[in-house]
């Protein structure tokens, strides 16, 4: 069993904003991904191998507190929070941002909104082919596109765990000097092709329900992982209490 206490999280948005400059891989972890990681050692390696891990979702906050894994409370830091922090920082100085993932339709909307919201950022995009597994040629083309861009900020959005595993597998090949965030649905949130839950829903921990309502076909299958997540948390809590 993979335990929540085996991961080290960023505590809050202030810590996320203070991640040192340089080539850094920043991932997020939510309840769904945590359950997926139980049977995916490559996913676990990618999450643990990154430079920073954000607790994305109230499930991870509740879980970390239940097992009393850290000396200070962990606050939720979503992929969207990281996106806003990093984009505002880059816009203040000017630079190049690359979006790797999603469809050309979504990427076009992202370019248009960036031109309005972050006018000092030059945006480059690359849409990889939609397939369960990339070929060697696909991977080489993606790495080459990133390296040719030489971005000051790199976002990867291919859904979990595909995006994390891809970034980690090709991390040494990526000749970049910047932060790289695996942020999945944030591509659609920013493009406007998917509406994020209202703040009140987020505040009370119901963003997952809002997404199910908006994307029932995609999100309903994920609901089976929620009771599994709760079971894993209670199991870890029990094991820690008996010293195992």
Question: What are the key terms here?
Answer:
244 residues; alpha/beta; 6-stranded parallel sheet; globular
Please write out the topology.
Layout: H1 13-17, E1 24-29, H2 31-37, H3 41-49, E2 52-55, H4 58-66, H5 79-93, E3 95-101, H6 104-117, E4 121-126, H7 136-149, E5 153-157, H8 162-169, E6 179-182, H9 186-191, H10 199-203, H11 207-214, H12 216-219, H13 225-241
Parallel strand pairs: 1-2, 1-6, 3-4, 3-5, 5-6
Helix pairs in contact: 2-13, 3-8, 4-13
Descriptive account of the structure:
By secondary structure, the protein is of the alpha/beta class. It has one domain. 35% of the residues are buried.
Strand content: 5-15%
Low-confidence parts: none
Overall mean pLDDT: 93
Largest sheet: 6 strands, parallel
Q: What is the global morphology?
A: globular
| Total number of beta strands | 6
Fraction of residues in H or I helices: 40-55%
Number of domains: 1
Radius of gyration: 18 Å
Judged by helices, strands and strand pairing, the structural class is alpha/beta
Looking at the chains present, what oligomeric state does this protein adopt?
single chain
Separate helix tally: 13
Trace the largest sheet across and list its strands. 2-1-6-5-3-4
Short description:
The mean pLDDT is 93. The protein has 244 residues and is an alpha/beta fold.
């Amino acid at each position: 069993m993979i335990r929540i206490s085996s991961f080290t999280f960023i505590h809050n948005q202030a810590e996320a904003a203070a991640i040192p400059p340089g080539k850094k891989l920043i991932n997020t972890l939510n309840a769904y991904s945590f359950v997926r990681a139980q049977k995916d050692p490559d996913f676990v390696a990618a999450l643990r191998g990154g430079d920073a891990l954000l607790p994305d979702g109230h499930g991870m906050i509740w879980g970390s507190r239940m097992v009393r894994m850290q000396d200070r409370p962990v606050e939720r830091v979503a992929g969207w929070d990281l996106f806003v922090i990093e984009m505002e920082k880059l816009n203040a100085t000017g630079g190049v941002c690359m979006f790797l993932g999603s469809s050309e339709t979504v990427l076009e909307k992202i370019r248009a909104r960036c031109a309005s919201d972050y006018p000092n950022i030059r945006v480059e995009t690359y849409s990889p082919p939609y397939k369960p597994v990339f070929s060697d040629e696909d991977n080489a083309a993606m790495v080459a596109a990133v390296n040719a861009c030489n971005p000051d900020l790199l976002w990867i959005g291919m859904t979990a765990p595909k995006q994390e595993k891809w970034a980690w597998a090709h991390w040494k090949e990526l000749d970049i000097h910047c932060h790289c965030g695996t942020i999945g649905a944030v591509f659609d949130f920013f493009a406007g092709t998917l509406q994020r839950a209202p703040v009140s829903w987020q505040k009370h921990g119901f963003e997952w329900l809002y997404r199910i309502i908006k994307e029932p076909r995609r999100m309903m299958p994920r609901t089976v992982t929620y009771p599994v997540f709760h079971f894993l948390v209670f199991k870890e809590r029990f094991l820690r209490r008996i010293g195992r």
